[in-house]
Amino acid sequence: MEKNVSLNPEEQEDLRIVEHLDMQKLPESVQHMISLASSPEEQDIILMATLAAASACVPNQYFRYGPTGKKYYANLQCFILAAAASGKGIANQALEMVRVVDAQYPMLIAGDSTLAAWYKALEAQGGRGYMHESEGSVITDIWKSGAANYNTALRKAAEHEAISRNRVKGASEIRNPRLSMLLTGTFGQYKALVPSVENGYFSRLLTVVIKGTNGFDKRYVSSKGGQSFVPKQVGQRLLRMYENLMDAGEREWSLTERQKERLGEHLETEYGTLVGLLGENFHSAVIRMAVQIERMAMVLTAMRGMSAYNADEIDGESGECHSPEMEEKEPAFNAGSMDKVIYCADEDYETAEMIGNKMLLHMAAAYRMIDGDTQEVVPEIKPLDQRKVLFEQLKGEYSHGDLAEEAKRQGISKRTVERWNLNWIENGLVEKTNHGQYRKVA
Fold it and tell me: What is the pLDDT of residues 97-107, one digit of tens each?
């Protein structure tokens, strides 16, 4: 039987994204798209759908990451994992944005495609494209026999690694794929693409977990067209942005030194906690979130329409920009020489970091669903923060009684905390010193 995505209100609140953002710091186009939502869950869906769709419209900008300085582009791949009638249909508004750009610069690739047709379409567009599919059943039917191959192709595209095929008529290769993607579907459809937590695509695919059915929305009865113009209006802005970026050629985008340091410190802390709580299989999701955060910040920078900056205009220590261009609203990506670097504004970094924080919790929820009891109809998706809070409240040395008392105080079942405690021991966060006695490992 299909697992249901079922979270109680407290659990879903812990996973909410937009509620924790400063709306005034978001680019206007993103604010307009979020205004289409009628619930916190829809806000989160349209936010992530907007970022994923817009990432397809940010050509030529790249950042360097890792010891080798590998180039990464803006392209985000995201899966909205939710039950039927849960509001995920609002993600289609992001598709309407891209249709405006696609009308002049083809970039849409159908999800309802065989792998061969998908490859051919991506190849015809120079390795660039956007795939948007909201009908999970279509995905499942197409992937029944080829999910593993799609998984490999999408994983390579997420890393901009060459995708090749060899047929009787000859071989071909897409050397630098830049594919953005937004899929929505149920848990069964998600697991067809990501069959296990050990699968390399799990950590490369942003996953948003949404609760069950929303209440009846009377907008679908009384609407007179309302805000249907918003995606088209935003699409026009994306079109101008796309053209400016194409005219400018390849340009490097970068975090400031201060932002890089903050990102490293932040993820180092999250790595120790999350991997300790969930196990080694989750470590790649934390590590790769650094790339995802930079990609989201890059998309926000592009949508804001910031000007290009020379490295001389950025204080390498503080990250502050001393250029009056910082206040410009109109895009100027094609201005200046090619040696200029586009630096990330603090508000865009802070927004991307916050989204990344919440995305780790969403991915942890998906992780526990994949790794859970396959016979369980409603999977356990306890908020990770609850587990973290309990662990942090315990003293350096504690007893079984202390664990039970703290669990009772927080309203967590005894069986659940005992299982968590065993996980902490297995993952090296805690050691057993005597019968019923435990100590946190520094």
Answer: 999 999 999 99
Which 3 state secondary structure label does DSSP give 232?
helix
Tell me which H or E stretch contains 61: strand 61-65
For residue 38 the two structure tokens come to 């009628």
Span 138-154, pLDDT tens digits: 665 665 555 556 788 88
- Helix, coil or strand: residue 283: helix
Answer CATH for 9-252+351-370 from 3.40.50, 3.30.310, 3.30.200, 3.30.70: 3.40.50
Section 126-132 average pLDDT: 94
Q: What is the rounded CA–CA span in Å between residue 88 and residue 183?
A: 10
Residues 6+ apart with CB under 8 A from 259: 319, 344, 346, 349
Q: How far apart are CA 275 and CA 388, in angstroms?
A: 12
Contact 41, 214 (CB under 8 A): yes
- Domain map (residue ranges) of the chain: 9-252+351-370, 394-440
**How many CB atoms neighbour CB 302 within 10 A?**
27
Question: Quick one: tokens of 210?
Answer: 């949404």
